[in-house]
Structure formats: C-alpha cells, structure tokens
Specification:
By secondary structure, this protein is α+β, with helices and mostly antiparallel strands. It folds into 2 domains: 171 residues, HUPs (Rossmann fold), CATH 3.40.50; 250 residues, Valyl/Leucyl/Isoleucyl-tRNA synthetase, editing domain (Isoleucyl-tRNA Synthetase, domain 2, Alpha-Beta Complex), CATH 3.90.740.10. Helix content is 33%, strand content 24%. The chain is built from 16 helices and 19 strands. The protein has a 7-stranded mixed beta sheet. Strands 12-15-8-16 form a 4-stranded mixed beta sheet. A 3-stranded antiparallel beta sheet has the order 4-3-19. Helix 4 crosses helix 6.
Length: 471
C-alpha cells in the first residue's frame, strides 16, 4: 500500500510514525524470534543511573551501541539486547546527601545507614520514564521490559560468582595500591575522573626542611667531600649536618622514611656559623642561601646509604611502623621498634633538578613513585593519615584534616630548628570533581584483581581488533 507523499515533510513526525510502526508490530521482538538458533552475538550494555536525567551525550553513546547489534542482526546473528540500570555507587548517594544537606559520612551514620539506604533505593528510578522515552524516541532497540538491575540479589550474586571464579584462578590478592583518594567521598578516583578536577590556581605551602644526618654518616660524607675535609671534620662536634629537601605537602612529612638523590649528579656542602647543608649544586643558585658559603662538593652516589634522623619517630606518637619485604607474599610487614630509629638516603632516577633541592622527600604511604621506591629499597612504611584525611596517632596536630595540619606541622618543625624556609606556591592540584575535596594519593590496603596476569592476553586480543580510528 502506498501513501501520498506530502511536499511539506515533518521529519520528527516521520520518525514517530516509524517508531509507532515498530512498536505496533513488535518488530524488535520479531527480529530476535526469526533468528533463534542462529549464531549468537552478545554486546554488553553498560547501564546508566536512572536517578539523573538523560542528556545529549547519552544519545550519542546509545546510537553507537545500537549500530553494532543492528549490523550483526542484518548479517543473520541472533542478537538479544538486555537493558540495565546502575543503582549503586556515589551518584545515587551524593544525590541523597544533597537532598538531606549532608556533608560527611558522620551525617549519614547519625541519620541511620538503613534509612539512608532506603532513600537511595527509592531515588534510583526517579527518571525512569524519561530514560524509557529517550530510548524509544532515538530508536534504540533494547529489552526495557526485562532489565537487569544492580541492586537485585540475582545481579549481586552473579558478581560474587565472578569474584569466586577469579579467586579460584589465583587472580585475587590482598595488597596495597596507591590511588587518588577522595577523603570526603571515601573512594578512589580513576585517572579520567582525576582529570576532571585539576585546578591551576591552588595555593599550597612551599617549605624547605632540614633532615639531621646521623653523626657516623656525617663523618663518612665529609671524608668524601672535595674540599677542606680536615676543617669540616674538626667542626662536626660543634656543627650539625643536614640534608635539605623541599615539599608542598607538609602533612606527608610524618610519613617520610627516605630521602632520594641522583647518583650521577654533584651535591654541594654549604656552611654558615651553625650548620652544614647538603643539596644539589644545580639548585644552590635557584633556591638562594644568604649567609652560607660553599665549602665542598660530593657525588650523589656517595650520599646513598647515609643515615638521618626521622623528623617524627612514629613510635613516639603511637603510629605503627611497617616495612617492605620482598621475600613475603604481602608487601608490607610489621617492624619492631628500633632504638634509635634512623632512615636512609637512596639513589633514584626520579630526582629532578627543575625545582626543589635535588633531594626528594620520600613517603611510601603517599605517592605511587614513593611506594615503588619503598618496594625496591625495602623502606619503612608509615601511614599517619586515615581514609577520612585526618592525622592519626598522638602528634600535636593529630585529629586534624591534612590541609589544616600543614601549618601546625610547619610550626612544630620550626620550633625544633628543622625549617629552613617557608613560602607558598600556586600550582596545579587535583580535587574531587564530585565534591571539591582535595585528593590525597594514598596507599590503600585492600583486595585487588591481578589484571597484570592477563595483560599480554589483553594486548594480543586488542591486536586482532580492527580499530577506528587506528592507533
């Protein structure tokens, strides 16, 4: 049957006619029924959260998801498509927190976790009608009548089944991983989420800290100095020797367990009336040292292995000290109390001469590079901050949020003569894109999936895919 063609065509109405035709005649269902028994092609649809309105970007992603199943259907495959709804996670929780004007986990606990979860469950399908309408309007063929829903036990049990399968294959392990952590949301962020929250105008402390060299190490350093060694040895009894390091995160200093130097570079020894300072020769002029004179140089390689006093001995502040151990299955083991406790200088290839002093403060609990250095050198591991971003232990600044503890830590070091200079810096720093809290790079002890065991298989599989655009 043919219909007259109107010269004034309304494309939206034409599309609606096609949608009605598909719906009235169950075309999607017939496309499946007619291919029952044919080779099956499966495409997993990552489910959206229905507690937020769909946007134009969802149209784009759903069009892409619709093209491939339609193509495979036209090629004769049986292609069932099951809709899904993501009802877990932070998007749902944050929506309820905003509604209740909550600002912390404590607010949720005081309100009642069960009642809070009830509101989350009630909110997850707030915009379900809008999602169904959009899905139908753009011609996205998918089974909306029998969706999988992540809060249902059947789905949750399938996740536990998958974890059990991974466990049986030895792919689940207990360990540490350094992640960008939001102390307010209480979760790690992916790299693309971190990229959403960078701010170029963040003002932070910029401090130069003195680390006192142990006497025996000071003598060994002086003996390797190209300069007036005899005069320096005579003065060691009256003048202390310090390594000078720079940081913009004073809150990580209680977690310091090593200093890193570049083994190939030259380091200068500076002197004033009271002390000796050691830093990279290339950084002496940029940093500036009024009242100091250069008395000699030493190679970075000769500094490696030298010992210095902790800025904050964790045993004095009721904080556990752990230690990396390559010989055990778990990377960090409890360490006995050393009296006196000292840390060491390590040689490393990540030391930069673009800023700082050429001596890098290393805190394995608070940085990916630091953690790797801890593993490679079997360093001590001191985690003096909890997942809420608060300082633990019995420090004078314990209980404070890390950023609020910064000035207190600086004052403490200054009162002990360990602060060389205090400034501020405006630089780029990541914040949580959801709640604006500053992110903390934090070594989390948790359960992980050993994806590296399948890395090569994944790479080999990717090599068989015809990518558009090519890469």
């Amino acid at each position: 049957m043919f219909h007259p063609v109107n010269t004034k065509i309304s494309f939206p109405e034409l599309e609606n006619e096609i949608i009605r035709f598909w719906k009235d005649r169950n075309i999607f269902q017939k496309s499946l029924h007619n291919r029952t028994g044919s080779p099956q092609f499966t495409m997993y649809d990552g489910p959206p959260t229905a507690n937020g309105k769909p946007g134009i970007h969802h149209v784009l992603s759903r069009v892409y998801k619709d093209i491939i199943p339609r193509y495979r259907t036209m090629k004769g495959s049986y292609v069932p498509r099951k809709a899904g709804w993501d009802t877990h996670g932070l998007p749902v929780e944050l929506e309820i927190e905003k509604k209740l004007k909550f600002t912390s986990k404590a607010d949720i606990e005081n309100y009642g976790v069960a009642q809070f979860n009830k509101l989350c469950r009630e909110s997850v399908f707030t915009y379900l009608k809008e999602w169904d309408s959009l899905t139908e309007r753009i011609g996205f063929w998918i089974d909306l009548e029998h969706p999988y829903i992540t809060l249902e036990n059947s789905y949750i049990e399938s996740c536990w089944w998958a974890i059990k399968e991974l466990w049986d294959k030895g792919l689940v392990y207990h360990g540490y991983k350094v992640t960008p952590h939001c102390p307010r949301c209480g979760t790690s962020l992916s790299s693309h989420e971190v990229a959403l929250g960078y701010r170029d105008d963040t003002v932070d402390p910029s401090v130069y800290i003195k680390f006192k060299v142990i006497d025996d190490s000071a003598r060994k350093i002086v003996q390797n100095v190209a300069g007036d060694t005899k005069a320096m040895l005579r003065e060691l009894g009256q003048k202390s020797v310090y390594f000078l390091a720079w940081t913009t995160t004073p809150w990580t200093l209680p977690g310091n367990t090593a200093l890193a130097v570049s083994p190939e570079l030259e380091y200068s020894v500076l002197k004033n009336e009271n002390e000796y300072l050691i830093l990279a020769s290339a950084r002496v002029m940029p940093v500036g040292f009024e009242g100091y004179t250069a008395v000699g140089t030493v190679q970075g390689n000769d500094l490696a292995g030298m010992a210095y006093e902790p800025l904050f001995n964790p045993h004095s502040f009721n904080v556990e000290r752990r230690r990396f151990d390559k010989n055990t299955g778990f990377p960090v083991q409890s360490a006995s109390k050393d009296n006196p406790l000292s840390y060491q200088v390590i040689a490393a290839d990540f030391v930069s001469m673009e800023d700082g002093t050429g001596i890098v403060h290393v805190a394995p609990a608070f940085g990916e590079v630091d953690f790797k250095a801890g593993e490679e050198n079997e360093l001590n591991f001191v985690q003096n901050v909890d997942l809420d971003g608060n300082i633990t232990g019995t420090y004078p600044f314990a209980g404070k949020f890390v950023k609020k503890a910064d000035p207190l830590i600086i004052e403490d070091l200054s009162s002990r003569g360990l602060l060389y200079r205090r400034e501020t810096i405006t630089h780029t720093y990541p914040f949580c894109w959801r709640c604006d809290a500053p992110l903390l790079y934090y070594a989390k002890r948790s359960w992980y999936i050993r994806t590296t065991a399948k890395k090569q298989e994944l790479i080999d599989g990717n090599a068989t895919i015809n990518w558009y655009p090519d890469h």
